[in-house]
Design brief:
alpha+beta; TATA-Binding Protein; 161 residues; six-stranded antiparallel β-sheet; globular; 5 helices; 45% helix
């Protein structure tokens, strides 16, 4: 009941909260927010760097698809804008790989931000959900990674609003 009342108050005040889009794949969590692509992307970068984390690379996915699509004869524009922010946490990565060296596959962490040509003001922000594993130590670290990614996304979206 408290959650419903809080949501109604925020709605009345005109405060936008991100909605979580259903994702049936089971491997990602996707947030949607109304706004400007550049503002949301820049706010996500700020949220990552504000935690003292270094961004390794920003992949310009939409530019790559547009460029290579021409060579392949593909004319469909999939994304209006799409970027993937790659970064790591030395603390979590070390814990993750100490738990199981095969966990190296979960690093670096990435957050994708994109919008679609038909809905330029709907911005999607997503991350890969760490796998469910039987190893309790890895599972505990994966929960920390999931929390970190969720926290960064929520902060980034709130900064963009």
């Amino acid at each position: 009941m408290k959650t419903i009342l809080t949501g109604l108050v925020l709605l009345i005040l005109g405060i936008n909260l991100p909605a979580i889009a259903a994702d049936t794949s089971g491997f990602s969590k996707i947030y949607t927010v109304k706004g400007d692509f550049d503002s949301v992307r820049d706010s996500l970068v700020t949220a990552v760097e504000g935690r003292g984390l270094k961004i390794n690379h920003i992949n310009h996915i939409s530019e790559m698809l547009d460029r290579t699509g021409k060579d392949l004869g593909a004319t469909q524009q999939i994304y209006l804008n799409a970027e993937q922010i790659e970064f790591c946490s030395a603390v979590l990565s070390r814990k993750m790989m100490a738990a199981n060296p095969a966990n190296i596959l979960m690093c670096p962490y990435s957050i994708a931000v994109y919008n679609l040509p038909a809905q330029p003001n709907t911005i999607y922000v997503a991350y890969r959900i760490p796998p469910a594993v039987s190893d309790k130590t890895s599972a505990a670290v994966f929960l920390e990674v999931k929390k970190l990614l969720n926290d960064i996304i929520q902060e980034g979206i709130s900064l963009a609003m």
